[in-house]
Amino acid sequence: MIEQNLFKWRHFQVDIILLCVRWYLRYTLSYRDLEEIMLERGLHVDHSTIYRWVQQYAPELEKRCRPYLKPTTDSWRVDETYVKIKKEWMYLYRAVDSEERPSTFG
């Protein structure tokens, strides 16, 4: 779908709609929490409006973002070691999924 058709005849700007939908999907916020956050920013958006936005735009966002996500599995193993970096001992954690794709964090 073309972006113009997705947001045609909307009262609010595209940025506001996408921000509310994104925050709802990413963080554990309720529709009423988002209503309050928008009110703090000077925008009166009813929680039922945000609900309708999520119902309409979340599937489209998911469809457009899905090709860019890295595939993962539900099974992970974590290795832990203690290494010296710049004369300071630090923990190094390495997560590996069931297909041996590593992810290092520490």
UniProtKB/TrEMBL annotation:
Superkingdom, natural source? Bacteria
Q: What is this protein called?
A: IS6 family transposase
InterPro entries given in the database record: DDE_dom, IS_Transposase, Transpos_IS6
Can you cite a GO biological process for this protein? DNA recombination
Q: NCBIfam families from the xrefs?
A: transpos_IS6 (NF033587)
Segments passing through the bilayer: none
The keyword Transmembrane belongs to this UniProt entry's keyword annotation:
no
Keywords associated with the record: DNA recombination, DNA-binding, Transposition
Q: Which residues form the DDE domain?
A: 74-100
PANTHER family registered for this protein in UniProt: BLL1675 PROTEIN
A Pfam family annotated for this chain is DDE_Tnp_IS240
What GO molecular function annotation could you give as one example from this UniProt entry?
DNA binding
Q: Does the keyword Membrane apply?
A: no
